[in-house]
Task: structure prediction
Amino acid sequence: MSHHLTITPRSELDFKLDDQDLPRHWFGGDPFKTRYFDAMSLSFPDGERLFMMAVRAFKHTITDLALQEDIKDFNRQEGQHGIIHNQFNEVLRRQGIDIDKVLRVQNYIQFNIYWKYFPKAYNLAATAALEHLTATMVYGFFDHGPVMQDADPRVRAMYAWHAIEELEHKSVAFDVMQQGARVGYIVRCLAMLQCTLHFSIYSYLAVNFLLKADGFGFWQRLRIMGKGMAWLYGPKGVFTALAGHFFSYFKPGFHPNKVALSPSYERWSTAYARAGDPIAASNELYAA
Ligand SMILES: [Fe+2]
Ligand SMILES: [Fe+2]
Result:
């Protein structure tokens, strides 16, 4: 069964990220879980800027008017994600962390290597691959049990909103890649493998950097990272539960709209329409 969601860009959202009582380790006091998500947040503003550039590079090749509209709304959503994650990244800066060190390296790799030397079609294939991973967030963090139960409701709400909107625009880059850039199966799969490897290496280096900034010594970081890996990849790990979603991308007939819709989508959208507040909507996903 295939579906197509309406892309609804939401703006002027207030996650109360400036609150002074936001704990440093906002994920239940757990340094690994907190810093893993923080590493993701650091990657979003520039990462999603590159996604928009890659889609825009092929916009003129799209004749389907509905897809043209979706591209506009995709840009508006990703633009908002960048704004809010920049706000959150300021919180990290206020914690005294030199996040520009991470951002500079990331920026250089993305714009001075990938964007400059790799074909535009490959950048779009990488975008479609990473969009599949971000569209998987909602299943991992909000569908499969109480993964984010202990997280601070304000930061959790930011991820819930982001995950929901990723679900809404999950097919845009993929459709532009197929219809506009005409990327074939092999390149699509290669881009996914390369992006997964790249993002995994980036995450662990960034988490290590953030934990170091927290003052943890080498052996402490090793222990924290080991425990964190089990949380992600163990038998009941967060990512282990998502293996099916991840590998579905490699099916030759894959399309994002064929992936079964997350039940969290309906719950969050209804709650948000009722309350007009992303924190209340996210809390609803965690209500008993
Ligand atoms: Fe996004
Ligand atoms: Fe996205």
About this structure: Residues 171 and 255 are 7 Å apart (CA to CA). Residues 31-285 form a domain with the Ribonucleotide Reductase, subunit A fold (CATH 1.10.620).
